[in-house]
Structures are given as C-alpha cells and as structure tokens.
Amino acid sequence: MQYLYLIISLLVVVADQGLKSYIVNNYSVGEVHQIIPGVLSFDYLQNNGAAWNILPGKMWLFYIISIIAIGACVYFLFNKKYTSKLFDIGIALVLGGIIGNFIDRLHLKYVVDMLQLDFIHFNIFNIADSAITIGVILIFIYLIFFDKDENDVKI
After folding, report:
1. How many angstroms separate the CA atoms of 118 and 88, rounded?
2. 20 to 30 A from 36, CA-CA: which of 79, 117, 126, 136?
C-alpha cells in the first residue's frame, strides 16, 4: 500500500517540475501573466533561499535539511506504526514537495517560484511548496484529531 503513496509523491514531483520547466522555458525572470484575473498569476522568480527567501545562498544547509526530511518522510511512510491514510497522504505530499524543490536546488542552485495569488498579498510559491503546506496540514489534522494513544488518560 505504501507504494501508492510513493506514486502520489511522484505525481507531485512531475507536476511541480513540469510547471517549472514550462515557466523557465517560456518566461523571463520577473515576467507576470494573469491566469485567472484577480485570482492567480504566473510570476517567474528565482529563490535561492528558503520560504520567504530566508537564508539566501545557504544551499549546503538546504541540501542537508532536504536529505534529512526525505529520510524522515520515507521512514514514516514505511513504518507500520503509522497506518492512517490521512497521515500517509500528508507524508506523501510533503515528500513530493521536498523532492521537487531539492531537484531545483541541486540542478539550478535556486528554486523556481511562479504562483502568485492576486487577491491577497502573499509570497510567490510553486506546486512543491503547496504540496508541503497541504501535507503538513493533513498531518496536523491527523495528529490533533485522530491519533489516539492507548495510554492516554481519559477524563
């Protein structure tokens, strides 16, 4: 069953890298095109830091963090203790997102960002970032509402 979750991760990587390739090959850095007026635009940026461009240029740190995070995701995905579909989907999305951005960092030395929400002032992001965010939300939902330890004291 865990291989199904690896397919989810692979789909995230393929979608992320596919859109990034399209943007890199068809846009100039800083070029903006509305996709859904007032809602979504493509705005090509090159981010050599982490989220919100923090720690710019610290690629070695991002390589280490990415490798550790990929290992942790694979561990949790294949650990028999964690068998919740919600948890596993969350981990699969996080794994795919981490790999998508890690490919950019290895290949380009920066991450390609392009998704801009026009209705709110928010940082420009990519599919990998979205997958990580949604995955973390699913993991938190599982941990808060569904993960019940048998040793918990019931009041």
Report:
1. 32
2. 136
Q: Are 67 and 105 in contact, with CB atoms under 8 Å apart?
A: no
- pTM for the full predicted model: 0.89
**9-33: pLDDT as tens digits:** 999 999 999 999 999 999 999 999 9
* Residue 80, both tokens: 């028999």
* 95: CB partners within 8 A, 6+ apart: 6, 9, 12, 70, 73, 74, 77, 135
Q: Which strand (E) or helix (H) includes residue 110? A: none
Q: Domain boundaries in the chain?
A: 2-144
104 tagged catalytic: no
Of 16, 88, 104, 129, which residue is the catalytic one? 129
Q: With a cut of 70, which residues of the chain have pLDDT below it?
A: 51-54, 57, 149-155
Instruction: Mark whether 149 is an active-site residue.
Output: no
